[in-house]
Amino acid sequence: MHHESGRWGYLESDELHQRRLDDSLQLHERAENVGIAFHAVEIDDRNTRLHIDVDGRIELYDFSERHELMVRTSNAICITCTRKDGNYYEATLQIRSAGRKLEDSELMELRTSLDAHLASMEPDPMFFITKEGAVVGGWDITLGSKSLARSWARHMIQRWGGQTKETNSVVGQKDGVDVTRLTLLYRKPGYDIGDVLRWRDALWIVQSWQKDGAVLISMERNEKTGASWRDLEKGNVLCRFVDQIEIDVLNRDSSVAEFMDPNDFKMKSVRLPHDDDGQQNKLRIGWVTDEWFAIPRIRNTDEGV
């Protein structure tokens, strides 16, 4: 990065040289129709020679001049590197799960979402990672920005649901103002969109997230309900979405479909889901309580269900 106009940023060579030329070149106040061209010759990593051609007009006289300018670069340490090397951080984000241990694949998916989230945001020198790693039950990551921690937590809630809890601790004072650090706990639900739950003695499918919980669809009938995070703590996941499979319907009648069991390649039958239109040649099935169940489509294309 280069330090320009009081801030650090990434500049291409041509843009950097143009800015250095703009800082150095002075034009007479009566000059008109001025044209400027330059050619850069790199001498080494620190020095570049600019060949500059300037032409224009002052009153009735045309002028043309040629100049040379040396652009010299000196090393400095940006604020980001200074703070990273000093283990500076403003926020710690703790990723946990409610009711079960997060699998490695889930942790990887959650961690990868930070890279995608950063790529979608405007660059900021404070958006850096100081330290991260696996801990018992989840993942901890320290960040250089509180706003980054909060925005990433919101992103995870929108994608995977869950809850957050914030705590702030005072670590010192600067100019008479308290300096605080943020600890943000994100709890991912123990279930995901498309999972089959047993809740209140019935089978439900998680359809989508809402602010205070999840929207559920009944496995038995065309019924939808909302449930809070606290209510769902009593639910048990019987079949995860990642364990469900797509099967080809070989035969069907008004209530039952026949298919080939992928486990033993024998013909099996399954009751059709309540949203079956009689035309589907494929069904999504899941192994629930020792038998195959056909699972209604929740038609959430954003989640791939």
Quick summary of this structure?
The chain is α+β, with helices and mostly antiparallel strands and 305 residues long. It folds into 3 domains: 2-72, no CATH class; 79-188, no CATH class; 196-303, no CATH class.
Shape: elongated
Topology, number of strands: 21
Strand content: over 45%
Count of discrete domains: 3
User: Which percent range fits the helix content?
Assistant: 10-25%
Q: Count of helical segments?
A: 5
Largest sheet: 5 strands, mixed
**Strand line-up of the largest beta sheet:** 7-8-6-10-9
Q: Low-confidence spans: pLDDT under 50, at least 5 residues?
A: 300-305
Report the average pLDDT across residues: 87
Structure classification: alpha+beta
Radius of gyration: 31 Å
SSE pattern, N- to C-terminal:
EEHEEEHEHEEHEEEEEEHEEEEEEE
Give the end-to-end Cα distance, rounded to a whole number of Å: 43 Å
How would you describe this structure to a colleague?
- The chain has 305 residues and is an alpha+beta fold.
- The chain folds into three domains: 2-72, no CATH class; 79-188, no CATH class; 196-303, no CATH class.
- Helices cover 18% and strands 46% of the residues.
- It is built from five helices and 21 strands.
- The chain has a five-stranded mixed sheet, with helices on one face. A five-stranded antiparallel sheet has the order 14-13-12-11-15. Strands 3-4-5 form a three-stranded antiparallel sheet.
- A hairpin with a 2-residue loop joins strand 7 and strand 8.
- Helix 3 crosses helix 4 (146-160).
- The longest helix has 16 residues, at 104-119.
- The two termini are 43 Å apart.
- Mean pLDDT is 87; it is low at 300-305.
